[in-house]
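User: Can you help me understand a structure? I only have the sequence.
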Amino acid sequence: MKKQYQVDKESKVPFHNAVDYCIGTGRMGLALQKEYFEQLRYVQEQIGFSYIRGHGLFCDDMAIYQYREDREGRQYTEYNFTYLDRVMDSYLELNIRPFLELGFMPKKLASGEQTVFYWKGNVTPPKDYSAWVALVQATLKHLIERYGKEEVLTWPVEVWNEPNLRTFWKDADMQEYFKLYKITSEAVKAVEDGFRVGGPAICGVDDEVWLRSFLEFVRESHAPLDFVTRHHYTSHVPKWDGHYGYIGLHEPEYAFGELERSREIIDSFPEFSGMDIHITEFNTSYIPQCPIHDTNLNAAYLAHMLSRLGDKHASYSYWTFGDVFEESGVAFTPFSGGFGLVANGIIPKPTFWTFAFFKKLQGECVHRSEEALVVRTGNGYRGVVWNADGRASGEELDVTLTLPAGEAAYCLIGKTVDEECCNPLKVWHELGEPANPSKETVELLREAAKPLVTTKRIMTANGAAELSLHLKKNAVQYFELVPAEIKSDAGYSYERTLQQKIEEE
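Assistant: Let's start by predicting it. Here is the structure, written out as tokens:
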């Protein structure tokens, strides 16, 4: 397949790039693990996100809520922030801040026994709402005291996670969630009115009914609402085999259409029209044992998503940064279909590079199509092209971009991720799929996880530079076009250097 585009000198295309605003994580308690910290440090060094969002702030492994009885039988409540401080300190050390999700329910505050995940997060309402309010407020006050009001008020606050799913909220009880939301959001604002608070963090099932009903409730009850949150996954129901679920992907327009309907619902309320929407979770599959997450198809498909998600949303948070993640238990192998951008062993997956490439797209957008995005920088261009082909045909793609440029020499720098040159999953498979690879094997997998770097000199003609980009199946390619006038050292000739040879005696 061939595509040709000519970019006009005056071309300007809307493109809101929020790729680095927020990233997802497993439950907060996992941040105490060494591998978790090392994976996050790698992600921050290579990409750099502003916020991080995950579950489990109030789960028992964080040990915040302590309901005790003394020797005389008197009951009392206290709060332990030791682990919370360790986690927050480590986040700030890596220049990332929490997008606070308030949940799940501490066991001793819960009204029921229903839990979710391997780590048993309790998903029932509080048995005592006043105790829940006290917990929320004590936590926020502690954070302000330790890190300062100016800092902590920049941390968004989200009330619960996916209450429209029975898995995450007992009976998916809408009215009970609305009660939780109102009481909690008011409690947050009572600590500091400057906090930004939002919800309902819905996903999939009956999402349109839930969103409309939630906004009606907020309007009628005057509950605080500074932004709306939802989740977005783009796959059909998985087919299971052993540990793993295999999926089919939605057509991109179908996926974007679902998000468009949320925007339309919000804008239909005069009080909320134009309000920020934060997608606080998104990925292809919604299960953490889906092999597609480790593939080049995932990387190319998500490049298309990233090119358009900012059109209607203030942010979109990929779920998740790494594979230290235990919703369904501890991963058996390095490539176990986990959500993460980084596999265990600090092995970047192909999708990692999609995010790294989009992070570099800072500048004025001059072109956007179904397979390419280009921005103008101070002295040249940067762009990403992709070929998401999940069909058996494996069709390759040739993209020709003609860009306005002065009469000069340029260098075209390319970084390519495809199934041949940046595919650690393939290498792992060909090594026999070792569940616990040696140190040497992990190093090899890291080497196999690097993009192919290429360069080419481009001479402009008639005030334009023509770029010819070839993409194999499921490829993502980043490029930079930068001025590159030759300024040789005295006596140095590149051509003569290449002409040197072994001479006969």
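Now, to help you interpret it: DSSP finds twelve helices and 26 strands in the chain. The two ends are 53 Å apart (CA to CA). Let me know which part you'd like to focus on.
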